[in-house]
Amino acid sequence: MTPRIDISVKLAVVLLLWVCAFAFSWMYQALLCLVVIAVRFTIPAFRPQSQRSARAFSRFLLYSAAVAFLVLLLNSLLIRGGTSYGTILGFALYEEGLLFGLRTASRLLLLTYAVLLFFISSPLKDLIRFLQTRGLSPSFTLILLLTLHFLDHLPARIHQIFLAQQARGAPVDAGVLARSRALLSLLSPLVLSSIVESIDRGTALELRGFLNRRTNCEASIPSGEGWNFLTILILILSMVILILTIFRWLPG
Amino acid sequence: MAARIELNSLTLRYAMASTPAVSGLSCTIPQGSCVGVVGPTGAGKTTLLHSLAGILGKHHPELMVSGNVSIGDESFGGISREILFPRVGLVLQDPSVQISGVRDTVFEEVLFTLENVGAVGDDSDSRIQLILRQLGIEHLAHRKPTSLSGGETQRVALATILVARPEVLLLDEPISALDATAQARLRSILLHLRGTTTVLVTDTQIDFPLSVCDRILALDHGRAVVFAEPQQLLSNDQSLPMIGGWQRWRDIARELEGRSDSSHRDTTRILKAIHLA
Amino acid sequence: MNLTFDNVSFTYASDRPLLKSLSFEAGPSDVLLIVGQNGVGKSTLLKLSNGILKPTAGHVRVGGLDTTEQRISKLAREICVTFQNPADQIFAPTVEKEVSFAPRNLGRIDPAGLAMQAMALCGLDSVATQHPYDLPPAQRKLLTIASAVASGAPLLAFDEPSAGLSQLEHRGLERILASLKIERRGLIVVSHDLGYFLRHATKVLVLRQGETLYYGTPEWLAVNEGVLRKAGLKLPIPERVSRMLGQRPEQPHV
Fold first, then answer.
1. Rounded Cα–Cα distance for residues C200 and A70 (Å)
2. Which of B97, B199, B228, C29 is at a distance of 20 to 30 A from B216, taking alpha carbons?
């Protein structure tokens, strides 16, 4: 079984990385991006929960890298100032634009990678449970859970609906125009059945006493479950970095 | 401990409906017994179950109610406007919606119920293991609850309710999607609950209730047509065309009555012999 | 117009074989009942019938057309498969529009007429203008069956069509079965409701562990319950009691 780190520690790590994204120079941000990627592959508790998460991480990694490169390029071309480092298709690349682009791109990457690392390695259910033990209302938790369930099963539902309509002759494998006509027959069952099923799921959770959970649950939380020491440490570190950063920004 | 259920001239009408969903229903369901509520679609079976569980009163405050319901020592002025779990447990027609999906294993899914009712303690593990064993699903304890077959899902849904030790268990058309093996398993579970839990099972067909219930309550258009033991039901002259399978069993009962061999007279004994075969 | 499985095997990617060497045929006026325990591959078999899945060995032919060589939309003109969950297909704002969806897609002459006929058979004509989700679940199930009947396909395949139906809807199903026989349309039914469909079936295919355990007449099967037991199935109680009493099987009410 994969060793688990308390979810509050992971949230604190995300916060720390976000603070670093605004505190440090682009070189350290880029280094931290590499650290995040290394953590995903080396630390078991930060490994993806499933094949789907692993594939999603790889895809997002590439897409965000592509976006960051685009940001870098555009800033280099559009912000003029300092030395010119050559031309691309007749457009000059400038030092100031390049530096600004590097800062923006590396910040964007670090912010994105931090969030990605959290979501691929943490089941959302654990997050919701954590929030509930910290006071999130059962009704709001119910909404989050039902949404989560809907998203989890979305690909499978779409596939089932696709097959069912295809079997009735819906033109889902024909031309673009025909397929667009078939769109309603694909989306409508998804929406209608999701609404009905969400109502049924909500009812079923109520029938298991879920809405009385907060009242009853305090007696059910295992003793010793408070704030994790490591979480507090990381939060303190984040605060220190933030304060030091603010000091650097102040005159003198 | 099982609870007795008393219905006194219970009538339930939705605000915009021209006719009541349940009309003048009166009967006493003895504690620890198993009653089959049979009738066609729209007869009021699900409405009755939902009113006993408290979900109907809670979700439809505009519902017009006359008569009243008593469960155990508690009498409601009409029906309960609050969900009565864990006193009254309801397993919905589609048990897959009863699986919360917020836990990774069957064991944790059942524990989720104990958390909801504030009953987590030192004995939780053994309590859950016992329920899983009684339902024949202890081998599924570490399986993902959303990866099970229809029959297994239904037993897990049952476990999530029974772990709370309800006085009353309500099952809404539990066999509609089950194969013969799964139906047989459910039958033995319900027989095992006799005496400790009052059970109501709804169905549109009479086969399953005949084989497991102490009494059958037949509903049609919200009214009770008959409330009798299976043998009385099959031997009386009342016609119940709205109940699926009734005519077939009536013919069998008549055939048995005509037989001279006394060992074949008792339809109930025949049913039991079939289940043991 | 026949559905023919010719030594068909099927394996999901990287899994052990699910279906092995199946051979059977369903033709005009046939009612082929397919039974077996859950997980034996019955739903997969239906998906092979209309080309959604392609066999890993052997051939599936619909009216002589090999399913590996045809588009699914073309095969849908010949065989209409209806899956178990009505919620997977119901989308239209009225019952009438829902039922006429298939004949319109398939370019049938007078799709509205086909829809009216199918709704009348199923007893849904009185609710033609209602929203499908205003109907009780049993009628929604019948709606999907009506929709398949209205498609005009010479072959129909249903996955658990009687699950959740009460007495009234069963009568609608009886009328459909009778109508299909008169129109010489073939029907393939996957169902564990032996009590209902054994009376109507002309052929039965019993599957065990993905292989054919029995393929033949329902009459032989009804008196050889051992075959069903081997497949993990049982005759329903009324049928077993009837056999004990030496009664004739109940005739379908039309």
1. 67
2. B97
